[in-house]
Design brief:
20% strand, 7-stranded parallel sheet, homodimer, alpha/beta, 4-stranded parallel sheet, globular
Chain lengths: 420, 420
């Protein structure tokens, strides 16, 4: 079979399963999630770890970065973590049980809007094999079939995980095909998945900016763009300096590789002479490389190297920070709306007016006042789960929980009504 | 300038306007809508009607269908109707004032989800010039700029309407560029609009299946598919026969050209011998052409011509009806899920079980029990306005009102919180 035929076959199986899944009671889905946890953590743990060891060995042979190996590696402890996540998903409220609109019209028609699954969700991701279980669990809980396409380096691990999940799901009575897995590593597979309109309902890429751009430009199936974050912290004239240093250091260094980490620090020019030495000292203590605008360099030619135009648009994902001194909050907002990716932005200020202006005018999924951008996350927001953070405006924006994996349907009950 | 340059220039102007519009108070937007109504109905009525006469004369010279001329034609009365619609839009609640989620987290972070405009909405439509005013009004009310691209036959009418709307909007203080109008008739313009990712936020095509398919396949900007309807009525074994005839006749004949009209009638085989003569008589009295499955032809070889496979998938938009006799509700649901376009489906039944099965298993935006599919409409649902009926699952499904022209934004207020 060609790559196209393989992908289409799996997608059609997922579509058929999705029709059945849409009517499976939540109790059955929860039982499947508990069974999946047990299978991953105990019954099939040895097979999964063995498959993962083979993947890790191949990756090591290619001399990849240590951080990459770390993301790829599974341990007994990490399997426990994954299993715990599956059980937490089972314990979440059923997103299909909500109805937020119901009306009886003057003609007697009763109209309800209920939540329904999206159908088949294609997830395209990179090295982390835990995404396989997390994403499958969230899709299933919301009544969706999934079609998983992980990174080629994790192929054996992912295959072993999917096998375990599928066995457990079947034992609980879920339809075969509910967890579709694309086991061809050819990049062509992504293109095929992304163009199965009418079979795959949405594509969610989880990975670097390159993957997301590729999907957005090459998929005819709707794509939800997630997780690219050129996030900013703006330190206003009236900021509490200690708070500003703490927030900036937390936003940059607590986990530099994630999408809600800060990439650019904007500083009000009136506070810059006082603030810059403090934040420079704190950042240097955390081994952060500093790239500054001309005004920064004028204030401190020792700790800063010059930032280029490219720096303002770069998601470093690393211990590098671009710093720009701006004349006021208006200039800060302009800079942000020009260079940001619509993820998370924060202002540190004591001015109610500037806080409100920043909230209103900054165009991003999450806009903070006096807090670190690192909180943009489904768990921190209290959603209990997260499939990704949408940086687009259509369908979902910000952390996507179970509700964002559903659509709606209008149910209308009449007694013979006809329209005039 | 090339088509590409013209479209890009207008789109960039709309984008700039959208940033300003996002913060314009609702009172100013409403004042603009009232001024637009006045301008269309009185101040500029003569110019608009003169421009429309020229369009109608050109269309007549091309010998197009009478129904087409009717859609294209504006009269003083129709301008009053459009103005009334603009005032109704002004009177609707502000969709940006709602917040449906607000929480204070254990760490003291206060999180609110508020509604924000989508940004720039591209509307691509066909002959009816009234869409120009209706669509612009709904986009503006929700805080969006629009980029309008109407049919070439209505170019002069649309240009005159946009000129009137723009003058009125400017007099009320709205930013220039808020109502973008693509005055090039080249089809290339659609392709350019649909690929301005990062400038145009969403494309909503309003028109025939051909236009919608073209947009879905050729736009990189997200598209909301609207208004194709292969809608079904299923008459179950236990249906009240009089109710079933009334619903079927209403769904087929009250306005055959619209998307919520019935195209295929499914009949339970046990009730077919009693029901078919009744519905045949009623449909024939309304000049409906009947195309039946083999079983229909066996029961009535006089009034039916044979239906082909193609008929089951066709949106006639005309006084033609496909009829199929099915063994039970399961077969009816299977047929619907295979051939429908996800718009509106109805069952006529006295069985609670079958009604519930139909509601649960039919995959469509609106699923009816004992009522005509003709009610799928923003006004009939009580939304007060409608930009179209979405037949897709992402972002919006079913009638789209003002709320569906918005996105969300999370506002997070802290007191210096940093993430562990």
């Amino acid at each position: 079979m060609t790559v196209k035929e393989i992908v289409e076959q799996k997608a059609r199986a997922a579509k058929a399963a999705s029709r059945q899944l849409a009517t499976v009671p939540v109790g059955v889905k929860n039982a499947a999630l508990y069974a999946m946890a047990e299978q991953m953590e105990n019954t099939d743990a040895a097979q999964i770890l063995a498959a993962n060891e083979a993947d890790v060995a191949s990756a090591r042979a290619k001399n990849v970065k240590a951080s990459y190996i770390d993301r790829l590696t599974l341990t007994k402890e990490r399997l426990h973590g994954i299993a715990k996540g599956l059980r937490q998903t089972a314990a979440l409220p059923d997103p299909l049980s909500e109805s937020d609109f119901s009306v009886v019209r003057p003609n007697g028609l009763s109209i309800r809007r209920v939540r329904v699954p999206l159908g088949v969700i294609g997830i395209i991701y990179e090295a982390r094999p835990n995404v396989t279980a997390d994403a499958a669990a969230l899709c299933l809980k919301a009544g969706n079939a999934c079609l998983l396409r992980g990174g080629s380096e994790a192929l054996k691990s992912n295959a072993a995980i999917v096998e375990a999940l599928t066995k457990a799901a079947a034992s609980a009575g879920l339809p075969a095909g509910a967890i579709g897995f694309i086991d061809v590593t050819d990049r062509e597979a992504v293109g095929v998945m992304g163009n199965l309109r009418g079979i795959v309902d949405v594509i969610i890429p989880r990975g670097g900016a390159g993957l997301i751009k590729y999907c957005a430009e090459n998929c005819r199936v709707p794509v939800i763009e997630t997780g690219t974050g050129v996030c900013h912290t703006f330190v206003d004239e009236t900021a509490d300096l200690t708070m500003a240093v703490n927030i900036a250091v937390n936003a940059k260094t607590s986990r530099p590789s994630v999408c809600n980490a800060m990439e650019t620090l904007l500083v009000h020019e009136r506070i810059a002479p006082a603030f810059l030495p403090l934040v420079t000292y704190a950042m240097k203590a955390k081994q952060v490389e500093l790239r500054g605008c001309e005004k920064c360099l004028a204030l401190d030619g020792v700790n800063f190297v010059p930032a280029t135009e490219e720096d303002w648009a770069t998601e470093y994902g690393d211990l590098i920070l671009a710093v720009k001194i701006v004349p006021d909050v208006t200039a800060a907002i302009e800079h942000i709306n020009r260079y940001n990716t619509g993820h998370s932005e924060t202002i540190v200020t004591d001015s109610v007016q500037n806080a409100e202006k920043f909230r209103r005018e900054v165009d991003a999924a999450a806009v903070y006042v006096n807090a670190s951008t690192r909180f943009t996350d489904g768990f921190e927001f209290g959603f209990g789960a997260e499939i990704g953070i949408s940086t687009q405006k259509l369908h979902a924006r910000g952390p996507m929980g179970l509700r964002e994996l559903t659509s709606v349907k209008y149910l209308i009950d009449g007694q013979g009504q006809c329209r005039q």
